[in-house]
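Quick one: structure tokens for this chain, please?
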Amino acid sequence: MIFGIKKHLKSQVADSLLKALFCLLILFNFSCKKQAAATLKPGDTTTTVTPPTVNFFKPSYNPSGLDTTKLFNPVPVVSDLARTDLYEISGVAASRINPGVLYIHNDSGNPNQVYLTNGAGANIGTLTLTPVGNRDWEDIAVGPGPVAGKNYVYVGDIGDNDSQYPSVFVYRFPEPDLTGATLPVSINITQLDIIELKYPNGPRNAETLMVDPLTKDIYIASKASNISQIFVAKYPQSTSSVTVMTPIVQLYFDHATGGDISPDGTEILLRSNQLIWYWKLPAGTSISAGLLTAPEVAPYANNEPQGEGICFAADDSGYYTDTEIRGYPGKLATMSFYKRK
């Protein structure tokens, strides 16, 4: 009897000790999680964060039943680039102060340089952006900026094939005046604005950067299968803190690789490797509202192995497209021009 009581007491003590140990383990685990949460920083890969749901306006037109614009010649003038060392050309933009000059650049892993050419493919020079690198430059634009009367070059470090970067960047600097310069030029851009941008619904890949010449707003269009989500960073964009972009429109457009807004703000181009959409905006229509209207299909000759960039000519005479050629032996980097009729 006494032995049975002792055994029962030992069992109770053991049970109490196990319960106490279990409670301590729970408290320790909670404390560790709390401490880990306190030390995590934005961009850490050890956390799983569900992106918030954001709302986009969606157009009502049928994207497979669009009309074809008659404004441009369907047969482009195609010129080989004089430089034969540019294999991964991505964006193209037209200078506003140097007549006929076009800015182009390579994408990820290449030098932090913008190259100057023209519709004939000439080698006009190189701009080296010394304060920054080329993580994945995917598009380029020209438009107004902080100083009234000046035109700026905007370089979009916005590529993200694996949708992993917490932020993307736009580098802005005044256009260099080439008047009287000996060509080809070699210019170091030592001062520029770094605009850090973040998507409201998590990282994504993008290859399209556009600047509204009337409002100075920056637009980025994502690149995905059958969908392009368009975001805006309203002017003035901060150069000292991260700007969370605003979602505006979701288009049913497959793998957007480039886009542009015309110098007068009334026309928009958006392209893929196979297709170009063109919008002519009614007077007073904003870019956001205009993108909800039905575009027309613009001419594209499908002459580029991997079509990337597109831009309006500064003089309103038409639009240019360019192409990447890495992975296409025997192909040359070209500039194609579709003349306005």
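The radius of gyration is 27 Å.
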